[in-house]
Design brief:
Chains A, B, C, D: One of its GO terms (cellular component) is cytoplasm. Four copies of one chain form a homotetramer. Chain A is α/β, with parallel strands linked by helices and 360 residues long. Chain A contains twelve helices and 16 strands. In chain A, the strands form three sheets. In chain A, strands 12-11-7-10-9-8-15-16 form an eight-stranded mixed β-sheet.
């Protein structure tokens, strides 16, 4: 009877919390890309999402139980792990609850826009070293970023000292983004957080010294109410002569354009400086052109699969998770400093111990 | 108990024949990328391959039965489909046997190097219209080739009339390739067959009029014994003013370089003219550089997954297979004509009915 | 007798002041690329330069008089125009002297590192509206920048609101650069000045609101004495919701890397984001690579020729010069503000009238 | 009096024969790009061309005498050299006449479409070793082709054994091209001749063994009358295991697309595989795109200047000319063999001595 790998106990029973755009994608990723995961449950507080799930043929065929409540889902019999893909404001509390239930957790970034909540979630995770609790910084699982990282670590470019990194989204004219933006903490917290994480990763987490940011509103004036912009440029100076600078945008015409350049004393590694949807080029009266991925999903779909595979493997084989929750703390601190600078026009400064200091 | 999708009958029990380099990859593809496939058996006549499989943890955990004989495997209880990845010389006979057992078949290209065998396999498939029998031309499942095809079909470049297509492999200095080459029918049959298929696909299968090829031996002089070359250039003229030309190589220094250009009366579509392993560029004292995929696997891994998914879906949902066996006949006819021209120095000509004609 | 165009008075007698690296190149440009220019004199205060010139066959054959003193050269009989390519600290005074002698002037950037001197030179030029006095911002004459400008002006990208621009030089290990750097005003004044000019040109000279810069020393610690860095990142916020940001570097491994991206509300124009020395790509065991120009000369040689041609044409045909001296004033003001921010860590702010304001 | 370089005798008095599109460009090149050339005369048998020249301000200012007859022009006092840019059918006779007058000659390609005429011109040149007689294969003066050549000669790619080269022109819908095509000898003689020259140059002039070509008519059916096609593909096998293959087209939508790939045993050098008009890329709703040069002039303008400079220098300094007339003979022989194959459908074969042989 039984089936694939069941007898050996080499399958992980996992649930996905949240059935928004990404939650659905995570279910599909687990079904189609992670041989040793068994999706046993999902939940959403939004009736239209649970209704959709209950009628979905895959969810039926693969016996995925649909819950209306996160708390109820945590009690699903045999559940071992949760992938938290709810809205940012409950990431931390959901993580803490799952840990308290003895479940392994993969939590989407950012852990919270509130540093105290981030600390509480980290503390919860530390209290249960037997559980795997992982932060979902998806870019670290992208094959190109990993290749770039290996090249930097193997000294291809000498000492890395400067990172330029962009997260520029396709203009969303549907209104979806503006509604979403109300609770995301601002462009440097929601968007640039990935770039900050990359900068810290590539330059070995130097301590920030000063943060400065400016921004503008070109397509979404409504964001002014949320104290946000639709294009921002930020600069971070680190102790030790390192620098990172960022451009975040919600208003690109050509697609999702995420690129990173790591400059070192002996060279430079560039990731996706010319974004391409695929290998196709069209030559016609307008010249030569290629398309660009419309969204981060097309750019990072494989990275999400790798992330899920590595989380499942870490649990099943009792390995260290590839990205710990702690990773998110310094990232968020810098993201919030940039957002504050954007709003105040001031340079936000820290001493080498990471404490806020004021200019005299 | 049971599990995923089992109750609904929405899983396909499939076996993989052959455990060479590609057979192993097909097993992994089915396990990791095809949610509705259940690999129930594999077989190989090579003891070191079956021994390897019997010790492999995935094969054990996922209950994959390992057979020493293809015929025995066909009798595996509950088996519904076979993916044939044995050596080319038994592709046709294995296909026929599986069809006779009432099994669905996905057969790797080429179906055979002998046109009579190709015809026999096609006839067998036609005798069982209830079975799905599919030819494995993997490039047709590649996202870039599909995008190019959609662009051509939606008239982006007017009437397509000229195809340039290359299959250029990384030089293999291990001896593996030279051993393999003895039974593959020659460079235009083994390598260019993909390019011929693409040319026919993009130009709506025009009738060939003349075929001419030349070649050279630069790294593998041993191939002379097999009446083959390690670099060949072939030209095919079709009725209706269409042309295809090809470069096949076994000796590239930089990687697996497969590109295709489709010229039409209003433009050109190019696929992979500058091959790239990923999105990474390194800038250093030598300039700027990127890496290239070493093998077709890195280039076409996703295409193989799509191919497997579509085959499984075609069987489960009773859809038409995306690439019929018949597709392989004209492709092979042209491949063999190019190989003959290569060996004789003559132009091989056909009339519009496809019959061989001689120059007067 | 006489010759080319002489009878018609359609040749311009021009002198080049300064015989450093660029002065020599300007002489060659005038000889080889400007049909209607006649180089009649050069000068240098450096004996090894004048000695070199007196022995140069071209200078002999083309009757170029070599002076040891700028003032003496200004009295050369028949002289009509001067191309000032001396060191930055005398650009302004040399311009003023030439104007006082009634000569047309093409003065290399920057006009001065001192804003008062810049003003004095502008005033001198304004006092002689009959003379053509032009600022040498060479990038404005580059075919690619001009094409980008036309595209922006013809509304290809909507309203331009964000400029990223880099001037990154090949690492100079000869010591030449460090010696040169002592009098150049700092990296944002010497290097970024071109990028500031481009940002103002593409965005219609918006008024600066705040300037912030950070930097680091990675290869040339000696620059600390000159209050300078070898890598700097600067951000300028303008009134009207416009932003420019810059990276200047003296330490690139791969070559002279100058790129500019102009983002608009409907698209983006990119100039030289992937720099290439020429059209050649090499594919070998390391992948695929191309070379990068080593210096700005290889990148902008044609732009210097166009600049010279247009200056000569402006004089001969009595046209407006393509880049007026005034252009240099705001550019220098922003360059100096960035340099000051770099040294103080403070944000430098201006009101809409361009007056310096302090944070409260 | 006099002027530039006159006294030293270091200027060359040169005339341009032919005032068609290229003849006018050659005059401009000599005026603007060749410091030591003095254009003293031009000629054309077409009254509208001579009329245009007599009214052109540059021709007036620079004292360029306009002749209605080539023979008269050859008698211009002080004339030292002629750049022959007349129609192909008189290239050879004009070369011979100029040599007989003791003039140096730069003759545009092809020398003739008749091999006997080519031989006669070569013989004339050989009879006057004191004169510089040069064939105008402009691509050999292009900076990228030269860089590629240096790389090949310095063993970057091992032994070169395969050349792919394309000459693909923008579709001309004005009728100019079709009229021009009547006397140009066919697509492989007019267009591919450059590619054949490159193949021979890069592979050290191997002896051709067999030539085969096919073609089609997609936009210019009128060419059938001239026994020509608007797209042709040709293959040349050489003795020694070398191969060249070519695509020539008159019907490109995107611009002038000329590329060359030289494959060697250790790597590949590619020239202009992705043609670009300049360094500009536009990102908008259609993706990312760049423009392509419309004509060979934009692609090779600098090469023509270098060619002119080197011819003038060869004469003035009594150096060997960079490309001898003999170069054109084998090139034309292969071009005509491809054209014959195109028309007859037969493989054209040669023995190692270069004599035509027939298949048995």
């Amino acid at each position: 009877m039984g089936s694939h790998a069941e007898k050996s106990g080499k399958m992980l029973n996992i649930a996905v919390a949240g059935l928004g755009r990404m939650g659905k994608r995570h279910v599909a990723t687990l079904l189609n890309r992670v041989a040793r995961a068994r999706v046993v449950a999902v939940c959403s507080a939004a009736p239209h999402e649970t209704e959709w799930a209950r009628g979905n043929q895959d969810y039926i065929d693969f016996d995925i139980k649909v819950y209306d409540s996160y708390d109820d889902m945590l009690n699903h019999q045999g559940l071992q792990a949760v992938w938290i893909s709810t809205s940012t404001d409950v990431h931390a509390s959901h993580t803490i609850k799952a840990v308290e239930k003895g479940l392994h957790v993969l939590c989407e970034k950012p852990l919270s826009t509130d540093l105290n909540e981030v600390s509480a979630a980290i503390a919860a995770a530390e209290s249960r070293p037997d559980l795997k609790v992982m932060a979902g910084f998806s870019r670290r699982f992208d094959a190109s970023y990993r290749d770039a990282y290996q090249k930097v670590k193997s000294n291809t470019i000498g000492e890395p000292y400067l990172v330029r990194s962009n997260t520029c989204d396709l203009l969303d004219e549907t209104g979806f983004f503006v509604a979403y933006a109300k609770r995301n903490g601002g462009i440097f917290v929601d968007c640039t957080i990935h770039d900050i994480d990359l900068a810290l990763w590539f330059m070995d987490s130097p301590a920030p010294k000063s943060c400065f940011a400016v921004g503008t509103l070109k397509h979404h004036p409504e964001l002014a109410e949320s104290h946000d912009v639709d294009n921002g440029v930020g600069v971070v100076e680190f102790y030790g002569g390192k620098i990172a600078y960022f451009h975040a945008s919600r208003t690109q015409a050509h697609g999702h354009d995420v690129c990173t350049e790591i400059s070192g004393t002996q060279g430079k590694v560039m990731v996706n400086v010319i974004p391409k949807a695929n290998n196709v080029v069209v030559a016609d009266r307008t010249g030569m052109r290629h398309e660009v991925q419309p969204e981060y999903w097309q750019r990072f779909e494989d990275a999400f699969a790798t992330e899920a595979q590595e989380f499942v493997t870490a649990v099943l084989d009792d390995n260290k998770v590839p990205v710990s929750l702690e990773t998110g703390f310094l990232v968020m601190k810098i993201g919030r400093a940039l957002q504050e600078s954007l709003m105040t026009g001031k340079v936000i400064k820290f001493n080498e111990q990471g404490e806020r200091i004021e200019d005299i």
